[in-house]
Each structure stands twice: as structure tokens, then as C-alpha cells.
Amino acid sequence: MGAQMRIYRQRIKSVNSIKKITNAMELIAAARVIKARQRATEAMPYTTALTRAVSAVASNTNEDHPLTTSITDAKRAGVVIITADRGLAGAYSVAALKRAAELVALLESEGKEVVPYLVGRKAVSYYKFRKREYAQEWTGFTDAPTFENAKEIADRITADFLKEYAEGGMDEIHLVYTRFRSMVRQDPHVLRLLPLEVVDKDVDGDSDRGLDFTVQHYDEGQLAPEYDFEPSASEVLDRLLPKYVRNRIYTALLSSSASELAARQRAMKSATDNATELIKTYQRLANQARQAGITQEISEIVGGANALADAKK
Fold it and tell me: Could you give all domains of the chain from N- to C-terminal order, each with its CATH number?
């Protein structure tokens, strides 16, 4: 019984140590997710304004711009997949990778060659373990992304999109990220980033194939504004669209960051609660073992006393 008691005490001590770590990680994630949510919220007004500007230019011109002209027989599609650099965040990265796998299967069923662009060590590990090829990886910033990180990603995929197909260029660019809705709900989402197309949905709509930008609505009887572009609509698009792509990726990175921290907070809280229950279980088993040991000792004493009494008779 003494050996069993030592085992239970060692396990209680180990679980207590783990509980302290998970509790500390929960508190850190809870503190950081507030700032991450604030950054994502502050970035949305500019994204909305830029979206409306691009929408206005694309809706009021017949300009044949490469970033807004869809290819009917697209042959190659790039997919940017945003996951986490670190684990201990529940199913956050797994859900994004699963959504990306569904998108890849859909694109391949349409006869398109899929080229992944990976953000986060979890996505890189996933592809390397399965010996799958990818175009480029970006790691080390998923929990606190900066605009420079978004610019680097956006410039690479935009450059690949503008290349000719024979030179390895992309006909489409899709983005898979996790959209933050609340502290208890984060949804993996697919956005077709390039080429842009006007769709009659809001900026964060639920279109499976992605949404690109908002069409401005006007009430019945209200006149829609007319636009005059200077120096030309083409030059306005040349300036606006790269900014749009960079900002859209930046917003996706911020939303994914907030989602990652919220998922990590929930996972660590669950781990802490499980550790508490496990400690209670081990304490109960240790008490049972101690009681069993005491009962055995009493039985041995009583048995010995009875034996001595019988011997004296």
C-alpha cells in the first residue's frame, strides 16, 4: 500500500505542475486576445472603405484590368492557408487545414492545378509530413502579425498572379483563414482573393467560394452617384487593388490571430479543468489506498492479538 500511495502522490504532484502551466497559458491568452480583437476591429473600417472604393471603380468602368478580369478556363489556382505557429490551441489549425483540403479537392475536381502558399508552422508541418509540394512558407508571426508580414505575402501572390501561365503564373488566388466571430466561435472561411469580382454581399459574407467586395446599395428613388476617374480608371485600379489585396490579407491575419488566441484560451481552460478533476480523482484513490492500508494494519493487529490470546489458553 505504501508503494501505491507514493505513486498517487507523484501523479498528483505532476498534474499540479501541468495545471500551473495550463492556467498560466490561459491567462496569457486571455490577456493577448483582447488586444488582438481590438487590432482586428480597428482594421475593419479601412478595409470597408477600401472595399467600397474598389467596388465603385470596378462597377463604373469597363476597364479590362488583369486583377478584375476572370479567366473562363482557369488552369492553375493558388491557395493561401493561414494556420498557427504553435499548438495547444484546440482544433484551430486542424479546422483551417480541413477547410483548405476541401477547397483543394473542389478546385482539382474542376481540373485546376493547385499551388499552396503556407502561413504558420502547423501548415508547413502538415505538408512536409505528407511530402506535398508548396510554393512558399511564412512562419513566426501568426499570433501577432504586422502589416509588413501581410505586405510580403500579398506582393508574392500578386506577382505570381500577374505572371503568364507558362512562367508559373496563377489564374486564381484563394485565401483560407479563420474568421473571428466571438470568444466561443471561430469559423474557417474561404475567400477568392484574385481575380476580383463584384458580388452582392457584405464584406464578411458567407459565400463558400469567397467574397471580394461590397456593392453599394441605394434605396428606391435614390440616384446612384456617377464617377469620373483621373487620370484614368486603369491607373486608379493600379493604385487601389494592390492596397486592397495587402489590406485584405492583413485583416485575415488579424482575424486568424484573434481566433488562435481565443481557441488557445479555451483549450487551456479545458486542460486546467481536466487537471483539477484528475487531481480530485487521484486524491480519492490515494485516500482509498490509505484507508485500505489502515484497515489492513488493524486487521493484522487484531489477528496478532487473537493469536496471542489463543496461545495463552
Answer: 2-22+267-302 (1.10.287), 27-264 (3.40.1380.10)
Helix residue spans in the chain (DSSP H): 2-59, 92-109, 121-129, 147-162, 233-312
C-alpha cell at 103: 477547397
- The 10 Å Cβ neighbour count of residue 159 is 11
Q: Which strand ranges, in their side-by-side order, compose the sheet holding 172-182?
A: 136-138, 113-119, 76-82, 172-182, 185-194
| Lowest mean pLDDT, pick from 39-43, 171-175, 194-198 | 194-198
Lowest mean pLDDT among 35-44, 171-180, 267-276, 294-303: 294-303
CA dihedral 121, 122, 128, 133 (to 10 degrees): -80
